Amino acid sequence: MVKEIERYGIPIVHMATITTISESVGANRIVPTVAIPHPVGNPKLNAEDEHALRRTLVKKALDALATEVTEPTHFE
């Protein structure tokens, strides 16, 4: 589905814990996340630190959207 959406000119960011799966489905912009049960969060953190973590991941995803890529690229 990722490739089909990008084919229409809409950039997609795939945020995933297992980035090899992202590559196998054809994602070009990949943002590695935290853990399988909590990909964009960490319930062990206090509320303020978890908010900062989530904000960082979303910022990476937005930066990835603004970046031209021609092949699968990981945004660390």
Automatic annotation (TrEMBL):
Write out the GO MF terms: oxidoreductase activity, acting on X-H and Y-H to form an X-Y bond, with a disulfide as acceptor
- Origin: domain of life: Bacteria
Query: Which key words tag this protein in UniProt?
Result: Oxidoreductase, Selenocysteine
Which protein is depicted? Glycine reductase
Q: Which InterPro entries match?
A: Various_sel_PB
